[in-house]
Amino acid sequence: MIGKHVTRARHGWRRWVNSDHGLAALLFFLVLYGFIIYPLAGENGKTDTLAASSFSIVLLFGVLATTQHKAARLGMVALAAVAFTSHWLHFFIHEHAIHVIAAAAAALFFGFLSLLIIARVFRSGGITIYRIYGAIAVYVLLGVLWGEFYVLLYLFEPSAFYFDPAAQSGEPPISELVYFSFTTLTTLGVGDIMPVHPMARSLTTLEALVGQLYPAVLLARLVTLYHK
Q: Would you say residue 130 lies in a domain?
């Protein structure tokens, strides 16, 4: 009897994952991670633990969102494992090399995840609201991805960005660089953090360009194809 319930739950879980409903869950945790938990990281140990835990959840739902791509599944699992392990190692062992590996693994994971979700959103079949959620999730992923790029650049060149004295609260200023990423993606441009290094300026310009073209081209196209 218990075996039947386990089998039924397993089949139900697989159907949910293989459907587009997982894209909505991924979007929810990305918004929670990028706009609520991560900006508060560094305020105290409890918040840091919560940020690391939410990062792990995002990795999990990112892997689940790509389960339909069988050829890429093992690669995504491997990247998630490296990102998960290095992220938690850096949480306990604050070594520069571990942080570089963690940021690089996260950037690779979020980059490939964005491409795979785009492929899933535009695969054959009707456009559903969940596919639109997936496309919005990619937009949020772009902000997180560029945040990892900025962190990597900062780890190699701390003077790549100018921080207003009141803006920088951590070392390295991870939450501030993620905040800078989203203000650049949305072309908000507050001005309390500015790129100084040529590579930082190039990354900033490219993110602003992607931030303008993605909603105008891809999201707009999806909305026009969506039928209730």
A: yes
CA distance 7 to 3: 6
Identify how many contiguous H helices and E strands the chain contains and give both numbers.
9, 2
Q: Tokens at residue 203, please? A: 């990354």
Q: What is the CA radius of gyration of the chain?
A: 18
Residue pair 208/181 in contact by the 8 Å Cβ criterion: no
Count of structural domains within the chain: 1
When pLDDT is cut at 50, 70 and 90, the band that residue 45 belongs to is very low
Q: What angle do CA 55, 41, 142 make, to 5 degrees?
A: 50
- Give the structural domain span for 122: 12-225
Residue 29 within a domain: yes
Residue 194 is assigned to a structural domain of this protein: yes
- In a domain? residue 71: yes
pTM of the model: 0.86
Is the preceding peptide bond at 172 cis, omega within 30 degrees of 0?
A: yes
Binning pLDDT at 50, 70 and 90, where does residue 46 land?
A: very low
Tens of pLDDT, residues 108-138: 999 999 998 888 888 777 778 888 888 999 9
Instruction: Note the Cα 108 to chain centre separation in Å.
Output: 10
Contacts of 125 (CB under 8 A, 6+ apart): none
Q: Which residue has the tokens 């991924």?
A: 26
